[in-house]
Design brief:
The protein is α+β, with helices and mostly antiparallel strands. The longest helix is centred in the last third of the chain and has 15 residues, at about 210-225. It has helices at about 90, 190-205, 210-225, and strands at about 35-40, 45-50, 55-60, 65-70, 80, 85, 100-105, 110, 115, 120-125, 130, 135-140, 145-150, 150-155, 160-170, 180-185. The chain has one domain (about 65-225).
């Protein structure tokens, strides 16, 4: 997982433009709290925003999720959002299958212009399974008819105030794995600064597919100029 400051213009976040009958794109609701709804797009996994109150995929293509440490004062370094869930039939997933959440190694921390590699550590725990940002790893979720599963995300105690970034993909046997998605964690940062970090992720790490080669080239040029 690579974090960097980008000197080129932001690429606007773009969905894959998949049209789904079971979820309406919620204009202006991208920053509303959603669980991660993984759905089947013709044999390829996609991530969207699942609303358990409405029991619906409110945003069909969503690759940046938000989370706030400190919502429970008794556990300031641990949260259980976002969850992973949905109604299997609506999402096109087979009941009884294992849905694997793959965490990439590396933890980013917001520097006001981009994300640097952080020296602190984040952990994701689900039942007996535990993975961390130093080495990455996998967590399996059992798909049931209507599931709402919440791993615990925790950060090293007394970590600096800031916005922290983790990268994930989802995989399942018989399906193409999802594109990368990101969770941006707020640890006591001013909300305006935190939202700026979220917008940076949306604008720089979620490019349209055709823009990926250009982004890679721009990054290589930027690195050569700094070296």
């Amino acid at each position: 997982m690579t974090f960097r400051n980008m000197s080129y213009a932001h690429v606007l976040a773009a969905s894959l433009a998949a049209s789904v009958t079971f979820g309406a794109f919620a204009d202006g609701d991208e920053h509303e709290h959603f669980d991660i709804g993984v759905w089947n797009d013709g044999g390829t996994l996609r991530t969207g925003g699942w609303d358990h109150d409405e029991e619906a995929l409110e945003v069909s293509n969503l690759r940046v999720f938000e989370a706030e440490f400190g919502e429970d004062p008794a556990f300031p370094w641990t949260i259980d959002e976002p969850g992973v869930g949905g109604v299997a039939a609506d999402l096109g997933l087979p009941v009884g299958a294992n849905l694997t959440m793959n965490m990439m190694s590396g933890l980013g921390v917001w520097n006001g212009m981009g994300f640097d590699q952080s020296s602190t550590t984040m952990f994701v725990d689900y039942g007996p399974l535990s993975i961390d940002s130093n080495s990455g790893g996998q967590i399996d979720f059992l798909v049931t008819e209507d599931y709402d599963l919440h791993p615990f995300y925790s950060i090293t105690e007394n970590s600096d105030v800031g916005s922290y970034l983790l990268e994930f993909t989802f995989s399942m046997e018989g399906f193409e794995s999802s594109d990368s998605m990101w969770i941006v964690f707020n640890l006591g940062l001013d909300e305006e600064d935190y939202e700026a970090s979220v917008e940076w992720v949306e604008g720089n790490l979620v490019p349209a597919p055709a823009a990926l080669p250009a982004l890679g080239l721009a990054f290589m040029v930027s690195r050569r100029r700094r070296s």
